[in-house]
Amino acid sequence: MNGHGTLELLAVAPPYGGYFALHKVVIVGIGFLLWCLVCQWVDRDTDVVKTKREQWNGIVLSGGITGLLVLLAGPWAGATFYLGLAFWLLLSSGTILAYVIHRNGRVTQSSRVLTVDYFRRLASGNKQKKKRTSDDDRVRIADADGAHIDPPEDPEEYQQYVATQDFLYEMLWRRASDTDMLVGKQRVRIMYRIDGVATEAGNGVGVEDADRVLSYLKVVSGQNPNERRRPQSGKLQVALLGEGKPLDDLEVHTSGSTEGERLRLRLREAAALKRIDQLGFAKPRLDKIKEMLGTTDGLILFSGGRQTGVTTTQYAVLKNHDAFMRNIYTLEARPLLEVENVTQNKHESRNTDVSYARQLQTVLRRAPDVVMIGECPDRETAEIAVRAAGNGKKIYLALQGKDCFDALERFRKLLNDSAALSRVLLGVTSQRLVRELCTACRQAYRPDPTILKKANLPVDKIEHFHRPPTEPILDKKGNEIICPKCQGTGYAGRSGVFELLAVDDEVAKLLAASAEMRQVKAQCRKNKMYYLQEEGLLKVIGGTTSMNEIIRALKN
């Protein structure tokens, strides 16, 4: 190329800096930097509000990166550059806004971002910063009457408040019904009861924070914070933010021990009152128990061990009745829940002047149609219950028993009047509680044919059982993924395993004749009664629970 041609090219070439606009590079650079800072905040904030970290990081990153690629690769010349820039901002800010809306629904009003109140706080110099931050409030706390408890102004009390927020959040997030914390001089031990199984917390709280939690919970539950030895009790109401659930009652018990101070919490769920068809009865047994409940009089015995859900079953049975049309009463040593339109009577065992049987007589004088009896401590109570069932009352009575036959034999010996029992008894139930497999992470597997044969199950008709994950689930980086539904336990919620003994004419004749229990059992078997083990296997076959869980629940 000659010199003349070179001069012509230089004449038409853009001036220095004309191949790109410096101000556009600066705009994109600043936007990219701000976007990176927001992504870092999202990554940290997902851990604070305990939401799905990998999912939201992926959503926010994909929105921003997609928009940036379109901006850099698209034919944006001249003023159309700003259209590409607007597309990038719209896509990236849209995914960020989606996360903000999601996280704002999980925190308190004052902890939300990009709201009118948020900008007001910024405009006023964020004077409320000392009151609370987005890291602090994840649990709604109210007193026993439901009045909201605000964060304290005092700095030391505020530290107690923050430590309590973290402690209660961990308890509620894990779905613990009972929490036991022992605060020693050097170490803090925490035990959770989740779905009926006790588990020790691996990462406990420090001694200093544990003392703060103890002090704060004592104050807000109406206890003396300076008393460290004598047992004290109080009550609160709590709920996780953003779930839209009603506040649950939280019983707070503190006491001293030789090892240190002890805190025991028991959660009473507001929505724990269930219907009879939510308990776990197999369909044929559900139909049969509903048939028994439909009669206007008679006696039904509900049996099980401690903490097997017998009281919950009795409450569900009461809910099956129309409380507006029938007078319903209960007699209990310790009412588990308040049942609407049901008159609940508490037996004070410390009052030796009034026995359980005498208080039951008082309840029956009020002309009830249905009476739920929480226990049967003596023969007099059994006699009164049977007599009332024969006089037009519907009686639901709870007692201990390994199975239906054990409970029936105990009650028969206590009553010592087989003829009277045979005239009023409608049926007997026995139950256990089993943990339900988490449907989000349970795994199917082919069961060992030997086990199926031992359980008298058809090997050729059962394709698979289910169980919790046998190995941790890892992401692409090798980090363990904790299931958000069960928190890594493999189980979420509980269901009842029910054995039902229905009293027909043949069984009633055997009872009237004081026949041995093996004869009663043989007759029930002829009536195609299912035993507890068989009811449990039905839940394993249906995928509700695992074989190991049935073995655990039925071993006693």
Your description of this structure?
This protein is α/β, with parallel strands linked by helices. It has three domains: about 20-105, no CATH class; about 140-270, Beta-Lactamase; about 275-555, P-loop containing nucleotide triphosphate hydrolases (Rossmann fold), CATH 3.40.50.300. About 40% of the residues lie in helices and about 20% in strands. The protein contains 18 helices and 16 strands. It has helices at about 5-10, 20-50, 55-75, 80-105, 115-125, 155-175, 205-220, 285-295, 310-320, 355-365, 380-390, 405-415, 420-425, 450-455, 505-510, 515-525, 530-540, 545-555; strands at about 140, 175-185, 190-195, 195-200, 230-240, 250-255, 260-270, 300-305, 330, 345, 370-375, 395-400, 425-435, 445, 465, 490-500. It has a seven-stranded antiparallel sheet. A seven-stranded mixed sheet has the order 10-9-11-12-8-13-16, with helices on both faces. The chain has a two-stranded antiparallel ribbon with strand order 14-15. A hairpin with a 7-residue loop joins β5 (about 230-240) and β6. α2 packs antiparallel against α3. The protein is globular. The model is unreliable at about 10-15 and about 125-135 (pLDDT under 50).
How would the blueprint of this fold be written?
Blueprint lengths: L2 H10 L9 H27 L4 H21 L7 H24 L11 H8 L15 E4 L12 H19 L2 E8 L4 E7 L2 E4 L6 H14 L11 E9 L7 E9 L4 E8 L14 H11 L4 E7 L5 H10 L8 E5 L10 E4 L9 H9 L5 E4 L5 H11 L4 E7 L3 H12 L2 H7 E13 L5 E3 L3 H6 L10 E3 L23 E12 L2 H8 L4 H10 L5 H10 L5 H8 L2
Parallel strand pairs: 8-12, 8-13, 9-10, 9-11, 11-12
Antiparallel strand pairs: 1-5, 2-3, 2-7, 3-4, 5-6, 6-7, 13-16, 14-15
Helix pairs in contact: 2-3, 2-4, 3-4, 6-7, 10-11, 13-15, 15-16
